[in-house]
């Protein structure tokens, strides 16, 4: 597909999408198909020759749509809302075009910076305590996760690392395995199934605290579990409180359980995946009271805030709890703006290579990242774009040679 066909098909696709949304009420909300319906309708292996665009769109209507559960039908009342809107669909198209991967600031500065600022906007809309915001170079901040399940897992793993470090600082002879055996995490018996799964993945016990008559976790039940477990030699370290459970939208009593977690040095994660968007409304904000006791907080804009899946907003009071827990420093992720604080033991040839890389990346005609192969600093030249031709590679090579000559000349002087 070239650019001119993309222009034409893109407009057709937008029409198809708009027609789908406008006509969705006329479609049966839940499909009639039986398990395995799809396989006989399409070839057993990928075709050797491409289909036409028309054929593909016809297949979408004939083969895919009959098997779609229409989450955006006004007759869909299952699970939970999943957000979608025309602006979010357009934004997805633009993201597809820019197609960058934002794993570090340098991997695409706008990506990281927009995320940080938007997370502050969103945090202010919720009136999150300032400690969770990134502005004014505070210790806290927000980060987008794919799902609330991931946010819970990330919080649990960070809490696990933190408690292990704390206990080992006090008793260096303790092994990680010995500590992990004793760690115990908690949630109410109404928590989302992803909380239990986070415990399984994190390799720690997870205990369900019985909820009260309103399906809320209360102080007394938590206290009881803590006392019993501590007496048995276990180490409570992590707690998930839910604001708006998936089953019946009940609320754990944060104002009661929050101070207990703080006193016991238990990381408190607040899962407001479902109901969180509502806290933007002043009349519902009181439901978030007690979040000031939390170490991390999460809700899903992809449930109720018109943002297409996946966008789960997570905030922490101490960014270093997350960055520290998952810290890895491969060479190709380092960049000149990073205050890595590392002092590299330069050898002659590595130093020259580093100087060359620096020249290349400050000239900004091409972009490379380095790696280390054993003790060698290596400039990686990866063919990345689909549209690279040998002329581009030639031009890049001439450019590199020129800069290399400059570096060597500077060395000699
Ligand atoms: C929906 C929901 C989740 C899971 O959300 P994902 O983003 O799909 O992982 C977790 N907790 C609660 C309370 C939920 O309602």
Automatic annotation (TrEMBL):
Gene3D superfamilies per UniProt: dopa decarboxylase, N-terminal domain (1.20.1340.10), Type I PLP-dependent aspartate aminotransferase-like (Major domain) (3.40.640.10)
Keyword Protein biosynthesis applies: no
Residues where N6-(pyridoxal phosphate)lysine is found: 303
Signal peptide limits: none
EC code(s) of this entry: 4.1.1.28
Pfam families per the UniProt record, alphabetical: Pyridoxal_deC (PF00282)
KW Protein biosynthesis (keyword) present: no
Cofactor requirement: pyridoxal 5'-phosphate
One example of a Gene Ontology biological process annotation: amino acid metabolic process
Keywords: Catecholamine biosynthesis, Decarboxylase, Lyase, Pyridoxal phosphate
Domain of life: Eukaryota
UniProt-listed InterPro entries: Aromatic_deC (IPR010977), PyrdxlP-dep_de-COase (IPR002129), PyrdxlP-dep_Trfase (IPR015424), PyrdxlP-dep_Trfase_major (IPR015421), Pyridoxal-P_BS (IPR021115)
Record GO terms (molecular function): aromatic-L-amino-acid decarboxylase activity; pyridoxal phosphate binding
Pathway membership, UniProt: Catecholamine biosynthesis; dopamine biosynthesis; dopamine from L-tyrosine: step 2/2
Similarity comment text for this entry: Belongs to the group II decarboxylase family.
Quaternary structure, from the entry: Homodimer.
Full protein name: Aromatic-L-amino-acid decarboxylase
């Amino acid at each position: 597909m070239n650019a001119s066909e993309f222009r034409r098909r893109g407009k057709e696709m937008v029409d198809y999408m708009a027609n789908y949304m406008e006509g969705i009420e006329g479609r049966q909300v839940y499909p009639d198909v039986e398990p395995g319906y799809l396989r006989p309708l399409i070839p057993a292996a990928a075709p050797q020759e491409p289909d036409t665009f028309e054929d593909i769109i016809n297949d979408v209507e004939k083969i895919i749509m009959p098997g779609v559960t229409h989450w955006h039908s006004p007759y869909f009342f299952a699970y939970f809302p999943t957000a979608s809107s025309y602006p979010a669909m357009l934004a997805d198209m633009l993201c597809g075009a820019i197609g960058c991967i934002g794993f570090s600031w340098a991997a695409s500065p706008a990506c990281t910076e927009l995320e940080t600022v938007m997370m502050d906007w969103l945090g202010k809309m919720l009136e999150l305590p300032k400690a969770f915001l990134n502005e004014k170079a505070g210790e806290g901040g927000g980060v987008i996760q794919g799902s609330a399940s991931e946010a819970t897992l990330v919080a649990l793993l960070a809490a696990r690392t933190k408690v292990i470090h704390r206990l080992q600082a006090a008793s260096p002879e303790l092994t990680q395995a010995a500590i992990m055996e004793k760690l115990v995490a908690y949630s109410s018996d109404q928590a989302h199934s992803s909380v239990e799964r986070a415990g399984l993945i994190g390799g720690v016990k997870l205990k369900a605290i019985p909820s009260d008559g309103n399906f809320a976790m209360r102080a007394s039940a938590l206290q009881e579990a803590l006392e019993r477990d501590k007496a048995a030699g276990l180490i409570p370290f992590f707690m998930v409180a839910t604001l708006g459970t998936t089953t019946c939208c009940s609320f754990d009593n944060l104002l009661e359980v929050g101070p207990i977690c703080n006193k016991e040095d238990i990381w408190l994660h607040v899962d407001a995946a479902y109901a969180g968007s509502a806290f933007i409304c002043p009349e519902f904000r009181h439901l978030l009271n007690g979040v000031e006791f939390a170490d991390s907080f999460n809700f899903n804009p992809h449930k109720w805030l018109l943002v297409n899946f996946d966008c789960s907003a997570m905030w922490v009071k101490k960014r270093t709890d997350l960055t520290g827990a998952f810290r890895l420093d491969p060479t190709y992720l380092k960049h000149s703006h990073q205050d890595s604080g590392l002092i590299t033991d330069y050898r002659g040839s590595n130093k020259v290579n580093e100087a060359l890389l620096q020249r290349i990346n400050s000239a900004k005609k091409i972009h490379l990242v380095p790696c280390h192969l054993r003790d060698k600093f290596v400039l990686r030249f990866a063919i990345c774009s689909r549209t690279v031709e040998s002329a581009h590679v030639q031009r890049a090579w001439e450019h590199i040679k020129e800069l290399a000559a400059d570096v060597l000349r500077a060395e000699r002087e």
